[in-house]
Predict the structure.
Amino acid sequence: MIRIEHETPDRVGAIRALHLLALPTAGEADLVNRLRRDGDVAISLVAVEEKAVVGHIMVSPMRAPFKAFGLGPVVVAPGRQWQGIGTRLVRSGLEQARAEGWEAVLVVGDPGYYGRFGFSAAAAGGFASHYAGPYFMALSLCGSELPVRTGSVDYAPAFGDLE
C-alpha cells in the first residue's frame, strides 16, 4: 500500500538516494538539496511503501506575474514506474497547491504525460522563459484560464545549475 506523505527531515537521505538511483546523473538530487538550502521549497511529498521511499515530488515558487510554482523534480523508483505512483504524487501536489491558494503551476516535461493533468504548452506560450517551447507547459489552479497570459516567468535560482 502506497501512502503519500510530506517530506520529513528523517527522509532527506532516502529522497537523495532515490534520485541517484532513478536518474542518470546527480543533477536533480543536487537540485533538490539546493532548493531546500535556499528555502525555495513550497511542497515536497514522498510516496512511501512500508518504510521505503519509492517516489518524490518537489515544487518551488517561481518569479511570475501571479502566484505560481514550478513542478519538479518528480521521480519514481526504477521497477515501480508506470504503476500510478507519479500520478498520485502529481495529483496530491496539485491538490495541496490549490488548497494553499496557488494560482498556477508550470512544468518542463513530456506533453503526453503532463497533458493528462491539464498542462498545456499553449497556456505557457505567452510567457518569456529560458525554457519556452513545446515542453514548457502551464496549468491554471484558479479556474479555466491563467490570471495573466503574458510576462516573464523564472524558476528558482537553483535550476540555473542544471544547465
Remarks:
- Residues 85-99 form the longest helix (15 residues).
- The radius of gyration is 15 Å.
